[in-house]
Amino acid sequence: MTKAYSFELFPPKTEKGMTNLQATVTELQTRNPAFFSCTYGAGGSTQNNTFATVDWLREQSIDTAPHLTCIGNSVTETLEILQRYVDQGINRVVALRGDRPSGTGLIDSELTHANDLVALIREHFNDHFHIEVAAYPEMHPQAANFAADLNNFKRKVDAGANSAITQYFYNVDAYKRFVDETSAMGIEIPIVPGIMPITNYSNLKRFSDACGAEIPRWIAKRLESYLDDVDSIRAFGEEVVTQLCAELLEQGAPGLHFYTMNQTAPTLALWDNLGL
Ligand code: FAD
């Protein structure tokens, strides 16, 4: 099976950010990815930024997979957004629950989990969309335990997900085991590793603590020791993540999904090192 490579973007909030994103996409597009995905701020005020980014991508005729979260949006709003994407010729979405924006307290939602969103999409749009869902090789931080999280992952697949993209991780074994366990549960959809380049330790640490991704001690200790030496952080990060990707591909991963953070260089360095 040919491996699929994709790039994730986040919607910029400023004109300068948009100009930067457009340059990034133009350069990454030369590598012919399967698609670009664009994140969506759950229940927040950044949704129009996602629409603006998706609009621009579609104007360039780029295969686009908007992310869509279900908490904080009504069913009616969710269906309107999906219809908008149908009208734009989009046939792939990343269906997520999302996280409550900090400080907003509890949001009442008609759809409470990603499997509800997947089911809604299938109910209203049949097979129009290829539906991607999230997977957590190191367990979703709010899951009661690993078995429960695996069962909840299966709910999304049973509801009609076509493939999955993982949270980023730096432990190959966690991914391998996740794939083995889900396969033993009869899950056959491709589970594509999400790859986070390492370019900055403090941001990565903060983000990893929040989303439940582990930075292995041997990596963390080295990154810590570089302090503000950005070049050393990048060089070490590039070496570690290249090795991670190479092992994943060798072990049969169906592709890679790069969290580009709207930057070209870190992702392209990995791409070129891997000879993709
Ligand atoms: P779910 O699959 O609903 O799971 C959330 C939790 O609930 C898990 O602990 C699960 O075990 C449990 N659970 C699931 N279903 C049920 C059920 N039916 N009953 C009881 N418990 C259940 N966030 C954004 O805001 N915008 C984005 O664009 C975005 N993009 C992402 C892309 C990827 C590839 C990934 C991995 C994450 C992304 N996130 C994004 C973050 C994501 O929204 C959070 O991780 C969120 O906490 C969970 O979303 P989910 O779709 O995995 O939720």
Account of the 3D structure:
With about 280 residues, this protein is an alpha/beta fold. The chain has helices spanning about 15-30, 45-60, 75-85, 115-125, 145-160, 170-185, 200-210, 215-225, 230-250, 265-275; strands spanning about 5-10, 35-40, 65-70, 90-95, 130-135, 165-170, 190-195, 255-260. An 8-stranded parallel barrel has the order 1-2-3-4-5-6-7-8, surrounded by 5 helices. Helix 4 (about 115-125) packs parallel to helix 5 (about 145-160) and helix 9 packs across helix 10. The radius of gyration is 18 Å and the shape is globular. The structure holds flavin-adenine dinucleotide. Flavin-adenine dinucleotide binds near residues 39, 97 and 113.
Q: Based on the structure given, which CATH architecture is correct?
A: Alpha-Beta Barrel
CATH secondary-structure class: Alpha Beta
Described by the principal axes of the CA atoms, the overall outline is: globular
The number of domains: 1
Number of helices: 10
Number of strands: 8
Strand/helix succession: EHEHEHEHEHEHEHHHEH
Largest sheet: 8 strands, parallel, barrel
Bound molecules: flavin-adenine dinucleotide
Strand content: 15-25%
Order of the strands making up the biggest sheet: 1-2-3-4-5-6-7-8
State the end-to-end CA separation. 15 Å
Mean pLDDT rating: 95
The CATH topology, please?
Answer: TIM Barrel
Percent of residues in helices comes to 40-55%
Secondary-structure-derived class:
alpha/beta
What would you report as the Rg, rounded to the nearest angstrom? 18 Å
Oligomer classification: single chain
Low-confidence stretches are none
